[in-house]
Amino acid sequence: MRDVLFVRKICAVTVAAALAGCVLTPPPAAGDLQKQALANTTVPGSWKSGGSAAAVTERWLATFNDPALSALVDEALQYNADLQTAAARVERAAGFLKVASASLQPSVTAIGIAGSKSGGGGGLEGVFLNASLELDVWGRVRYGQSAAEEDAAAFAADYAYARQSLAAMVAKSWFVAIEAGLQRSINQEMLRSAGSLLNLAQERMRIGNGNEQAVADARATLANYHDAMRQIELSREQALRALESLLGRYPAAEIKVAERFSPMPGSVPAGMPSQLLERRPDVVAAERRVAAAFNRVGEARAAQLPRISLTAGGSDVSSDLIVLKNIDNPVWSLGANLIAPLYQGGALRAQVEIRSAEQKQAVAQYASAGLRAFGDVESALAAERTLRERAVILDAAARDNERALELSQTQYRVGNADLRAVEQRRLALYAARTSWLRVQSEQLAQRVNLHLALGGGFE
Predict the structure, then answer these.
(1) Which of 13, 204, 221, 451 is the most buried (most CB within 10 A)?
(2) In this structure, are residues 280 and 161 in contact, taking their beta carbons and an 8 Å threshold?
(3) pTM over 0.85
(4) How far apart are CA 18 and CA 416, in angstroms?
(5) For each successive 10 residues of the chain (459 residues), what is the average pLDDT?
(6) Among 271, 225, 211, 237, which Cα is nearest to 54's?
(7) In the chain, where are the structural domains located?
(8) DSSP 130
(9) What is the architecture, at CATH level 2, of domain 22-105+138-300+351-454?
C-alpha cells in the first residue's frame, strides 16, 4: 500500500512540474529580424534602377520559348551532381529532425538472459523491460526539435535556390554557346574580307600602285583575325563543355546548340523591394537559420536546469539456482528520476555563450544575404536598362555601316574608289555586328540574372 501511495505522489509531482513547465519563446518575427539585422538599411518603396511594381513573374524559363533549352534544364535537374548533393542535405536534415522528435517519445528497452549450470539442469532465465520518458519541463527537448525543424526548412530553401541557380546557369551557358557559334560565323566572314584585302594589297604592289607597308598591314590584319578565330573556337568548346558538365554528361564539346538566339522576352515585373526578402529562397534559408540558432540558445539554457523522467520497468526471472521467496514473479515497478547538473566546470554556461554567438553570426549572415539580394536586383535592373540603350545605339551603328558599305560599293563600281575601301567598310560592318551580337547575348543572360535575383520560379 505504501508503494502505491509513493508512486502516486511521484506521478502527481511530475505531472504538476510538466504542467508548470515553460512555454517556448518563439524566434523573432520576420519584420523584427529585418529591423535588427538591417538597422542601417532604408528599403525604398520601389527599385532605384526602375522596374515594374507588379507581381514577380513565375515560370520564367517558358518566356524564352525555347523547347530545347527547357529540355536541357530538365536534364540538368535530374543528373547534376551538385544538385544531388543539395538534395542529400535535405534528406540528412529530415533525418536529424526525426532524431530530435524521437526524444519526445517514450524509450523502451528489453533485455533477455539465459544460461545453464555445469552438469546439466536449468540455469538463470529472464526478461527485463524498461521504459522511460523525459518530461520536457523546461523545453530543452522541444527547443532542440524546433531547431531541427528550422534547419530542415533552411536546407529545403537552399535546395530550392540551388534548383533556380542551376536552371539559370544552364540557360546562360546555352546563350554563351550560341553566341560563340554566331561569333565564329562572323569571324569567318571577316577572315575572307581580310584575305581579300591582302590579295588586293599584293596585286597593287605588283602593278606598282601599292607598297610593301600596305602588304604588311594587310597581312598583320589577317593574322589578327586568325588569332581571334582560335580564341573563338576555344571559347565555343569551353562553353559546350561547361554546358555538358552541368547536364552530368562527359565534357566532350559535342552537344548541339541552336544556330540563333530566341527572341528577347518582354519586360519583367520586379515587384516591391520590401517583398524580396520573403521571396528569395537563399534569404529565406538565412532567416530559418536565425530561428534555428535562437532555438539552440533556448536549448542550451534549458540544459542548465534539472531533468525529470518517468520510468517503468518489469521483469520475469526463473532459475533453479535461486529461490525467489515472497516475491511476485513477474515484477513491475514505476518511478521517477531527477538529474540536476550541480557543477560541470562552467561547461553548460559556456554552451549558452557559444549558442548566443552563433545566433549573432546567423543574424549577420541574414543581413549579408538580404543586402546581396537587394544589390543583385538593382544591378540586374541597371544592366538591363544599359544593355537596352546600347542595343539601340549598336543597331543604328550597324545600319550606318551597312549604308556606308553600299555607298563604297557604288563608288567602286563607278571607279571613284578602289576595292580596298570596300573591304575596309565591310570589316567595319562585321565589327559592328559582333558588338551587336555580344549585347544580344548579354541581354539574355542579364534577363536570367534578373529572374534569379527576384526569386521567381522557373517551373
Answers:
(1) 451
(2) yes
(3) no
(4) 103
(5) 47 47 82 92 90 79 93 96 92 85 79 64 69 82 91 94 95 94 90 85 81 84 90 92 95 93 88 90 96 93 86 71 55 77 85 94 96 95 93 92 87 72 83 91 94 89
(6) 271
(7) 22-105+138-300+351-454
(8) E
(9) Up-down Bundle (1.20)
